Amino acid sequence: MDFKSSDTITGPRAEDHLPHTAQAAVKIVIVGGFGVGKTTMVGSVSEIKPLTTEETMTQAGIGVDDNYGSESKTATTVAMDFGRISITDQLVLYLFGTPGQERFWFLWNGLFEGALGAVVLIDTRRLEVSFDVIGRLEERGVPFVVAVNDFPDAPGYPIEDLRTALDLPEEIPIVKCDARRRASSRDTLMTLMRFLHSLAITSARV
Asked: Taking CA 170 as the corner, what is the angle to CA 167 and CA 175, rounded to the nearest 5 degrees?
């Protein structure tokens, strides 16, 4: 291809450059069923413009995708979402949001590769869709925390009742969050990092 002298090649925006103080990068996956807020969380907390692979939902998905509780949703992630957040001057998290529709779950294996931990987003209106998600993480041995996303019409349950319903051991953190709010999403990620740190300390003592 021939470029004219007037053509301009642009690179990453200045605000997208990795901080020069960064010394460690960690891969984190945001997982959950369809419509639980994974794309929203990545977008709200990312310090760079997030990469999304959302496509418009069509009639072809009727009878195939379970969108109960998310009937107004018009687009869905078909590959992944990607964002980045600096937890400290030295530590950077790379965030990968997984597709929620079960027919795209085959992509999860690649997204899980190299992941240090995961956030499982759940919607209390459709708690059952979280069972297979949690089961996949347990099978792969990926440490995770559970975040209960705040939907206006979702019923609220005590944390211990949710723990029992999800059959989770006491040591796995369960937190409430609002994926639309940067501070809440960041607090959820900090909960995961503290959990991973505690696991590392326990492992070092063994």
From this structure: 85
- On the CB side of 156, CA atoms within 13 Å amount to 7
Instruction: Tell me how far apart the alpha carbons of residues 106 and 134 are, in angstroms, rounded to a whole number.
Output: 15
Mean pLDDT of 81-110: 79
Given strand 144-149, what is the order of strands in its sheet?
A: 81-86, 91-97, 24-31, 117-122, 144-149, 174-177
Q: CB within 8 A of 138, min separation 6: which ones?
A: none
SS3 147: strand
pLDDT digits (tens, 9 = 90+) for 173-204: 999 999 999 999 999 999 999 999 999 998 88
Which value, in Å, is the radius of gyration of the alpha carbons in the chain?
A: 18
Q: Which residue has the tokens 């690179």?
A: 11
As to burial, measured by CB atoms within 10 angstroms (0-12 exposed, 13-18 middle, 19+ buried), residue 152 is exposed
Q: Measured on CA atoms in the order 53, 54, 57, 58, is the torsion positive or negative?
A: negative
Instruction: Decide: 33 and 123 in contact? Cβ < 8 Å.
Output: yes
Taking the C-alpha atoms of residue 4 and residue 141, their distance in angstroms, rounded to an integer, is 53
